[in-house]
Amino acid sequence: MWNSNKEVFKDLAEIFYKMFTTLATMVAVKCTHSGEKFFTQHYTIYSASVYMVMAFFMTWMLQTLLQHPIPNVSFPISLLLLLGSAVSFLALILISLSIAVINLVLWVPVFTFVVIFNKYQPELIKVLSEKIKQIFERYIKTPLQLRGRLPV
Fold it and tell me: Which end of the chain is more exposed for a tag (fewer CB within 10 A), N or C?
């Protein structure tokens, strides 16, 4: 039990470290003169890159939590996630308030998933694996020449 806690915390710490260094780099780029100019000229590109980076790290974090059995005590993990969301929110405020607020809203499903997953872990894994299996079976059984066609 203690080894799994240690392993989960070690993996989450690595993810958060990489996320924070990436966010710090994005903030540093935006704070330069040329970065500010790029940000004002290409706001959608810059904000999309921030969203992609945050989505990547949130997905990586959830994948890590799915790989390892979550310990029965989810308070330390929730505290770590709360700290990560607070620090990312504060870093993203330096880029844009709207990006920071949207990112904070995206953390809510992550918290919800961790709490629900901790409570219903065996049933949830079974349901998720069954749904994924059904989706892949549906696409595998469809003949290749019929995949792009509309029904007649």
Answer: C
Buried b (16+ CB within 10 A) or exposed e, 72-109: eebeebeebbeebbeebbebbebbbeebbeebeeebee
Backbone torsion region of residue 122, taken as left when φ is above 0, otherwise alpha when ψ lies between -120 and 50, otherwise beta: alpha
Q: Is residue 137 included in any domain, yes or no?
A: no
Return the axis-axis angle of helices 97-119 and 121-141, rounded to nearest 10°: 110
Whether 129 maps to a domain, the answer reads: no
The answer to whether residue 67 is domain-embedded is yes
Q: What is this structure's pTM?
A: 0.66
User: How far from the centroid of its chain's Cα atoms is residue 134's Cα?
Assistant: 24
Residues 85 and 108: their CA atoms lie apart, in Å, by 9
Domain that holds residue 62: 2-120
